[in-house]
Amino acid sequence: MNTIIFFITFMVLSTQTMIANQVNQMIGDEYQAMVETREIIGTIALTFDDGPGRYTDAILDVLYEHNVKATFFVLGHAVQKSPDTFLRTVEHGHEIGNHTWFHENLPKLTPSGVFETMRRTADLIEQLTDKFPATMRPPFGIFGTREQVIMEELGYSMILWSLDPRDWELRNSQQIYDYVMENVRCGDIILLHDIHESTYKAVAKLVPSLIEKGFDLVTVEQLLEETRPGQVYRRRD
Ligand code: NI
Asked: N or C: which end of the chain has fewer CB within 10 A?
């Protein structure tokens, strides 16, 4: 009698295990198919200017959740105000670029003024990270030949952008999201600002959608692969 009960129990248990294995196998196949159908169509770079700001940490959380990297063009005075958020950005493996100390319009400064705003910001970045920034973005995207010569001398490549959803002006997450999703192409450098709530809300939707569309979200230096000081970059051609 005991033998029969044992045998029945054994049969029931092994059938359950078989079913469980089959289910796992089916989920595994489905997952594999999902991974295989997500074809990478190319790289793009999200860039965030004028921070660290009020929404930088929330944006860092989104990027971390989806395991993607971005580039932050920071203002020296904002780094001085929020060193913890700045260090968190660095610890998460994002790229840091120099965006001047006070967001000065560079052509309006004296030559020593240009050197000073760049140096002061770079010194603070270097002091906190042990790394000198390799890229810079001129405030408002405004620069002349003089600025190019100075940036070459200081060792910065100049990073502009190829896609501008005008997040600072729109302040509407749905419109920012729609503009990017409708216009994004491989090799794009996307201009955003981590100081607006609407930008954070747009980014929370954009990151998973861009990944789903097949884009690999990388830093500017990863996107461009090789940059030269004094050279201006708008996208990866
Ligand atoms: Ni700016």
From this structure: N
Examine the pLDDT at 237 and tell me if it is beyond 90: no
Range of the domain at 135: 42-233
Q: How far is the CA of 194 from the centre of ligand 1 (A)?
A: 10
Q: What is the pTM of this model?
A: 0.84
The Å distance, Cα 103 to ligand 1 centre, comes to 6
**Domain count along the chain:** 2
pLDDT at 2: 57
pLDDT tens readout for residues 21-60: 554 555 455 545 555 556 889 999 999 999 999 999 999 9
Report CA(140)–ligand 1 centroid distance (Å).
6
Please work out, in degrees rounded to the nearest 5, the angle formed at the alpha carbon of residue 41 by the alpha carbons of 40 and 43.
90
Q: Please, are residues 206 and 178 in contact by the beta-carbon 8 Å criterion?
A: no
Catalytic pick from 49, 167, 188, 194? 49
Residues 31 and 91 in one domain: no
- Please name the residues in contact with 201: beta carbons below 8 A apart, sequence gap of 6 or more: 173
**pLDDT, position 40:** 86
193 is an active site residue: yes
Distances (CA, A) of 116 to 111, 142, 219: 9, 17, 26
Give CA torsion, residues 98, 99, 105, 106, to 10 deg: 10
Which position among 94, 99, 193, 196 bears the catalytic label? 193
Whether 62 and 12 share a structural domain: no
